[in-house]
Write a structure and sequence with these properties.
About 30% of the residues lie in helices and about 20% in strands. By secondary structure, the chain is α+β, with helices and mostly antiparallel strands. It folds into three domains: about 55 residues, no CATH class; about 70 residues, no CATH class; about 180 residues. The strands form five sheets. The chain has a six-stranded mixed sheet. Strands 1-5-6 form a three-stranded antiparallel sheet. Strands 2-3-4 form a three-stranded antiparallel sheet. The longest helix has about 35 residues. It is globular, with a radius of gyration of 26 Å.
Length: about 400
């Protein structure tokens, strides 16, 4: 007799409360635990790629958000495109239109695999996992021969320097940073003070908590939308994209002031790489991750010292946006200079997920620690301002580059 058969015979007497709850509330947690143990064991024996996995830790029910994943039962999206039917619970009114998934289900091109019900920001969220039969037609890139260097930052979410090898024309495009946390920081502080002055559990306390959760939810959604708009446009516009391998955690530690660390977290620069990886693969483009130690902001693009060494730009502080060339005295924009250096990333430098051999300037000078891991766009950014790019012009020419071997872009 199997364990399942023994349990089915004894559960009515041993656990009379079992029929009140869904079995998925327990089986989903056990399945996640089994998967975590398998990952830990495979990582311990060197059979799992990626970072080292630790032993699963206990999560308190008071701190960990409640969630359950349904794999069996009645799971469907109603034809009104506003109702989601979840097993045991029944129909749930959805604030978001479900047309994007429901039309695939109605035509038979997709079927639902599971539904995950979770609670966050005082709301119930339903995540639907489904299998979709993708069309055979492939998406095409607008300019497959153009190479674009993308410099991520805090002042500007991204500065893109694109070079057309056919005409030698260089285009500089700046994508503004919506900074949703900074835009709502005053309101968040006011809501936090109101929450601290309310009696816990009272009606006013619930209203103040819902107001604070609404601000937090808005920040997360605007930040995510900004990253999707940026990556979708880059993947569809350029055939070869070069990005930096940023260590965001180390950047926050080295900034010193809390306001600087908050600005780096608000920009969410670490979310761009994973989104670009799968979107560029979808369009059939090429993604290259430059060396983490490549000083793209400090090396003056197109200039060298009389002895042939790299010309390093200088500034009053590490956060200066305008840097000065010690040889010529020219004032250079830090972000545009970094984007140009990334656009000229050398062809013979291979950037893989483990390491790379690096050439001399303008390429990197140390082995790389490249990363790149694997939604589309369309709504305004923070405060109603669109995060569509603002072309800042640009002229000049650069050396045309051919495509380099793709690194860790899957």
């Amino acid at each position: 007799m199997s364990v399942f058969e023994a349990w089915n015979r004894a559960k009515h007497s041993v656990a009379p409360w079992w029929a009140v709850n869904s079995k998925e509330a327990y089986s989903s947690g056990l399945a996640d635990l089994a998967r975590a143990l398998d990952n830990w064991k495979a990582s311990k024996h060197g059979k799992r790629k990626g970072r080292r996995m630790g032993f699963p830790r206990f999560k308190s029910g008071r701190r960990d958000p409640g969630r359950v994943r349904f794999t069996t039962g009645t799971m469907r999206l109603e034809p009104d495109r506003r109702t989601i039917t979840v097993p045991v619970i029944g129909g749930l009114r959805c604030k978001e239109n479900t047309r994007r998934v429901q039309r695939h289900l109605a035509s038979g091109r997709a079927h639902i695999l599971n539904m995950t019900l979770s609670q966050r920001w005082g709301r119930l969220l339903v995540s639907i996992g489904y299998a979709l039969r993708t069309p055979t037609t492939t998406r095409t890139v607008a300019a497959p021969a153009v190479t674009a260097g993308v410099d991520l930052g805090v002042r500007m979410l991204a500065t893109v320097a694109a070079l057309d090898p056919a005409t030698g024309e260089e285009t500089i495009t700046e994508y503004p940073n919506p900074a949703p946390l900074k835009a709502t920081l005053t309101a968040r502080r006011r809501a936090g003070r109101q929450l601290s002055r309310r009696v816990p559990g009272s009606k006013g306390w619930r209203h103040a908590k819902a107001k604070l959760a609404r601000l937090e939810r808005r920040c997360v959604h605007l930040r995510r939308e900004a990253a999707h708009q940026l990556t979708t446009e880059l993947a569809g516009a350029y055939g070869h994209v070069v990005i930096e391998d940023l260590d965001v955690a180390a950047m926050k530690q080295n900034m010193g002031r809390r306001a600087y660390r908050r600005a780096i977290s608000d920009a969410a620069m670490g979310a761009v790489g994973p989104l670009l990886a799968y979107k560029i693969a979808r369009y059939g483009g090429l993604l290259t991750v430059a060396d983490r130690w490549f000083a793209s902001s400090q090396i003056h693009h197109g200039h060298t010292q009389p002895d042939g060494t790299a010309c390093r730009l200088v500034g009053n502080g590490k956060l200066d946006n305008q840097l000065v060339c010690p040889s010529t005295g020219v004032v250079v924009d830090r972000d545009i200079n970094a984007a140009r250096n990334l656009c000229d990333w050398p062809d013979h430098a291979s950037c893989g997920p483990v390491g790379a051999t690096a050439p001399s300037v303008p390429g990197p000078t140390t082995p790389t620690v490249g990363t790149g891991h694997g939604a589309d766009a369309g709504t305004p950014g923070a405060g109603g301002a669109s995060i569509r790019p603002h072309p800042s012009g640009g002229a000049g020419s650069g050396e045309a580059k051919t495509q380099t071997p793709q690194g860790d872009a899957a």
